Amino acid sequence: MLIAEGHMPYAFVLNGREVLLFCQGKKAYSRFGNKFEYMAWQLRYLFLDEPSKVYKIDTGFFDTDILCNPVGHVDKDGNVAVTFVATKVLRNEFFRYNMYKMVGKSLDTLGKPEKVDCLNHIMFNGFADTHKVVTCLTDQLCIMDPVNQKIKRSRIGMGAIMRVAPHHVANDIVMLTVHDTKQAHTYAISVESPTILGEIKVKGQSVYKCSAIGSYLIHATKGSDFERSIHMDSFSIDHMDKPIEMKDREWFSFAEPPPQDNREAHTFDDEPSPSKYKELYEMIMRLKPEDGPTDAVKTLQGLASSSNKAHKCSASKRKRLVIYINEAIKEGVEFPGGYNG
Question: How far is CA 47 from the centre of its chain?
Fold first, then answer.
């Protein structure tokens, strides 16, 4: 069943009503450096018992900024809290995402966005609830425990993470959408282990960026170009015969983060030309398992494949490819003949 035009849906219960947070956008154009087209997503919500009425969430951001991954919950004081990830495109912060939180008595009386402390982690998506802060970059899932002042990083090892969202009831379960070299899949993940429990499907098919509420799954579908639509269907979890344990890095203290978490933010100075982008893409796809950790190679190839438009590649995609390559090098991938950016 079609609910709305948009993507990044997240459903939860607020004052006895099922509410859906999601993003709607419009095409926009950069006005600094090389001009390019992108989708400026903004936050919206609706009530599932009245889906024809769509409301805007006033965040104070420009309508040319990119806001995504909205997640909501009711906190211990009975207030509604909404977190989202955003980048200020026209203020020279393209792809430098930060997480923000808004709190209020209702969705139409939310306070001003405040940055969530993510320990300077570079991220593309994430969320915060009453129990944890979660961020993602490439194939790495980072789980922060504010109460015990600890943090844990794990690698999904199945592709690039496109979206992460919590289950609205089960606090220890998150839904993780990853993209391999062919398509997107969404998995149910136990964050305590962390373990991949199974793949979430609708009518036997893989789903993209979803949220579960009751016995229904609300998921986004890709259309042409930037188009997205949100649907609600019954779903199943294809449990794995043997749950897959993610490659876990030990819990460590907030006060003593590992070296990779203190790395400087990418300055995005490297912007390959369209012809150089094509060369880099072909170099990535020629990688073999022996060129680095298998998971890191697969993730890099999945990221490159999902964003490849070499014949008319925007500046944003060219910048992003350099970030992916640099992350792969940190994970031990060696490019034949070398690569120095």
Answer: 24
Residue in 200, 144, 178 with CA at minimum distance from that of residue 295: 178
Task: Decide: 211 and 200 in contact? Cβ < 8 Å.
Answer: no
What are the pLDDT digits (tens) for 89-136? 765 555 578 899 999 999 999 999 999 887 766 677 899 988 788 988
Hunting for tokens 């042409």 — which residue is that? 224
**Rounded CA separation 312/308 (Å):** 9
Q: For the whole model, what pTM was predicted? A: 0.73
298/333 Cα distance (integer angstroms) = 10
Q: Which residues contact 214 (CB under 8 A, 6 or more apart)?
A: 18
- At residue 233, what are phi and psi to the nearest 5 degrees? -145, 165
Domain ranges in the chain with CATH number 2.115.10: 2-260
Question: Distance between CA atoms of 283 and 277, rounded to whole angstroms?
Answer: 10
Q: Both tokens of residue 287?
A: 């990688």
User: Are the C-beta atoms of 175 and 186 separated by less than 8 Å?
Assistant: yes
For the domain covering 2-260, report its CATH number.
2.115.10
